[in-house]
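User: Hi! I'm a student and our assignment asks us to look at how structure tokens line up with a sequence. Could you show me two examples?

Assistant: Happy to help. In each example below, the sequence comes first and the structure tokens follow. Example one:
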Amino acid sequence: MKHEFNLVKLADNIYEIPKTKKMARIEGQVKSFEMTVPARVYANDALLAKIKTDQTLDQLTNVACLPGTLKFAIALSDAHQGYGFPIGGVAATFEKAGVISPGGVGYDINCGVRLLRTNLKEGEVRPKIKELLNALFDNVPSGVGSSGTIGAITPKDLDDILENGVNWAIKKGYGWEEDAIFCEEHGCLPGKAAKVSGKAKSRGKSQIGSLGSGNHFLEIQRVAEIFDQATAKAFGINEVGQITAMIHTGSRGLGHQVCTDYLRIIEQAVRKYNISLPDRELAYVHGSTPEARDYFEAMCCAANFAWSNRQMITHWVRKSFSDVYKKKAEDMDLHLIYDVCHNILKKEEHVVDGKRLMLNVHRKGATRAFPPGHPKLSHEFQSTGQPVLIPGSMGTSSFLCVGQPKAMDLSFGSTAHGAGRAMSREAAIRNYRGSEIANQLQSRGIYVKAQTDTIIAEEAPGAYKSIDQVVQVSHDLGIVKKVVKLVPIGVTKG
């Protein structure tokens, strides 16, 4: 059913839809649902206009109807229509009495971003950028169904990956001991491999160590602007023109299958517990149920798979630089700055109405942004706040930020995860030609290497919102602080 919404402007970049009743057509009958909390949108006028063009607000108000949801359902500045929850959506519920919904995480569980620094300068990399992209393309498999390059993975190995995450890869020689320190949750959540289906394991077994398709990428970037010299220096970013490498990928087919499996289980549970939904894509169970516990443990396994996957890709990135520059990765300072996830459900403690509560925090296309002094941050980030990575589309900027105190009040310690699509992939293919986009980018000094021209068309910069505006909204709200702006000079796409 088409809904009209009363959007009230509370302050610059803050809009709210007050609590109201919603009508939904369920199996031919019109039913009423009560929003238990308001719906919040953090956006400027230009971004809000784009958010209004699809079903984002309808999905957001549906989320606000979920039992046990606290404060408000949130759409961040990059929000757009997703499955059940809008992408760029955040919702926190009581751990037991509230709900858990796979739609609040999505199919690409722990799709995330990691950033490595180098001591190389733009002048050293531009002459070798094609050689470097070729090395990355050869060393890191990409594309739909692509397989990793590490050979046979035993069932025991896979269970180890699912339960130990980034630590498995490091133990096997795909990284440095320090890498785990610089990952959100130190690269591991409490999963149980037994909760992951054989089909999901089969899909993941051959894909570990691969980039995948869609908006996943490997980028060689240059530091274009430094906003906070002291914080940048703490992360090893010292000057404009310094080179970084950014990795964006997730849990591949394994995470997709975990989501598919548990959506089926939870849809059955909806009937079992006689739950009425404003949207079938918002299937949920209460946090105290066995279905919720099983989903959470399987989701943690998929998140661990993603961390291990990004860790192995990091190994191949370091190898590619070493192959091209004939130096050890350590000598090029190829250290990990941070790794964040942005499709995840976390059990986190938050203060709500003066009470400290354990909550289920759903971040669907949203990045954690904890401020300085937060107890969940390792001592390396106590004074700076958590590094926050917000990538743009190829051809636009990406940002390294840090979490700020207002994030805890406004967004349960969350911020935007990227530019956010302004155009569907199908529409992008109709509107852009991949070869033309590649030529335009090359004329600007950005080289793109992809499996097909169609992928380049799907990911054309014009298909996305303005990353500069998306990040500026979070910066102006005090959710994050901008530290460094990064611009690509070479991109490999799945």
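Example two works the same way, sequence first and then tokens:
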Amino acid sequence: MMKSNIYLESKPRYEILDGLRGVAALIVVAYHLCETHFGLTPAHPLNHGHLAVDFFFALSGFVMGYAYDDRWDKMSTWGFFKRRLIRLHPLVVFGTFFGMCIFYFTDCSEFPLVSQTPWYVVLGAALFCFTMIPWPAAWDIRGWGETNPFNGPVWSLQWEYLANVLYALIFRRLKRVALALCVVFFGILTIMLCLNIDVFGLLATRDYVSYTVIGGWSLEPAQLLIGFTRLAYPFFAGLLLSRMDWTIRVKRAFWWCALMVVVALCMPWMGLGAEGDSRWTNGLYEALCILVVFPLIVSIGAGSSVKGSKSSAINKFLGDISYPLYITHFPFVQMQIAWVRNHPDAAVSTHVFMGVCIYLLAIAVAYATFKLYDFPLREWLKKKLFVSGKVQK
């Protein structure tokens, strides 16, 4: 039997890491809802919510090493890719389809191209985006130049796919020392981005998002540099943590780690001011989170356990909804943006009520998506594409 057709027995899951992914996803939804009113400015009340993406990459790198590093003698490269596609792609397709269904409901001044785009172009664009191939900015149908005009957060999944390819073809073969040297180099890139050190001549136009890692969602050279930098250190640092088995055991680890995630992502603007060189302290804060805090949280979460505790069910629920919530919430946010832009005189209380309702609706839709679509479809695909065994999540 070919290795690519055999599904290996699943390893025990890191429940705390699943739960922390859910905590970060909940913050991302609130971050995007607040962004409608505050923009990407120092006034944003959840100012560092964008760092959730970098935290997701660190989690993914650790889990990747744990799940697959010691299984390559029993698994082919194509078998690995099939496993990853089963885990990731059903929700990519669903999130894009969901965004397509809501597309015309987002017509507003913020999205000037929506009303000008014929339905058959929208349908063709969705079919194209189902493949995960980045949508070219020259074909933009919304006005934001994203690599997926129906579901913005898919950009980070495109980088996640690249990380999977790099891991399977290159990084799984590296010895620990070589991997550590790569992580050091990627860390230097992170520092350069956070402190706006523009050695490649691509960061000069960042203006209001300078001294942050915000970006990575389009095919412009600067955005490609930002996206790769955001991916490289967290993902491969997580992989190195797993390979070195650097974990820390702490009592009530989930609650401590969840608190650390919340504080890190919700910290107010850390610059000494909003203008000029005084912004560098915010970049230093983001570098500290990415280089030190997130690996530390992953290490504690992986080294501790919630088995037999009351928080076990909480971790399972948060883990179940984390990916569906991340990949389905943004079309709701785009509808919120359109409503806000089209009703500039609405009362503040109305905006708050609307935001809370969307937040709760996004969680409900995510849970329903997991139960009714994602998990059943992955089980079905596993049976169709592999001979036997349990899904390795």
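Here is something you could point out in your write-up. Confidence is low (pLDDT under 50) at residues 389-393.
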